[in-house]
Structures are given as structure tokens and as C-alpha cells.
Amino acid sequence: MKRIEPNKFLPNVLYACLSGGIVNTLLFFIGTGTGVIPETVAISPDGKALALPPVVLASVVPVLVAALLFYLMSLFMASHRRWFLVIAVVVLLLSFITPFGIENVPFGMALLLNSMHLVVAASVLYFFTRTKEKASL
Model pTM? Predict the structure, then answer.
């Protein structure tokens, strides 16, 4: 069975965090600049509009959770890449529902938030699947 080498995997986790965070930051500024993300739609429980820190946090935390899952799967499963892909696609599809659950969300904002989900998923799949493996006993 092949296993992921942590010293080769961790840089890919960092690249996925950075690429997802940077692209979603750009999408956030485009969305706020064009009015697609209005300041009148309350996202947080205290009634505040979407801000940059939650966007970055929501871009990085899922990458770290996915990294832990991918690494653990590589320790215990021979076909971890295939199963990780299946899980990632299912989670991505389920994540498309959440923006539409925001009260009074404009359709354009929901689409932009979904595109942010797609960016994170794409960066995870791109960088994680390029991690080299070593044969184990």
C-alpha cells in the first residue's frame, strides 16, 4: 500500500490554503465592489454583513479538515484518492445548498458564494492529488 509522505503533503496543503484564500479574497472584493454582495444582507447571527475575515477563514478551515481526512485515509485505505474524490464531490454538492438558506439573499450573491465553494474544492483536489506517495510495507 502507498502512503502519503507528510513532508511532501504539507506544502500542498499550504498551496491549497493560499490559492483558495487568495482567489476567494479577490471574489469577495469583486462582489462587494459590484454590489453582488450587499451590506444589507445579514450573514452572522448578530446581523452583520459578510466581511473578509470570515471569507478567508471559510476558505482555509475546510482545506485543513480535508487535509486531515486525506492523510488519515491514506494511512488506512489503498484507494484513498478515489474515495476522497467521492467524498469531496458530495460535500461540494451539499455546500451549494447553504447560500440559498441565507435569509433575503440575492441570487447573484448565492452564486458568488457557491463559486467560492468551488474554488476551495478545486484547490484541494488539484493540490492534494499531486502529492507524491511512497511504498510502505
Answer: 0.90
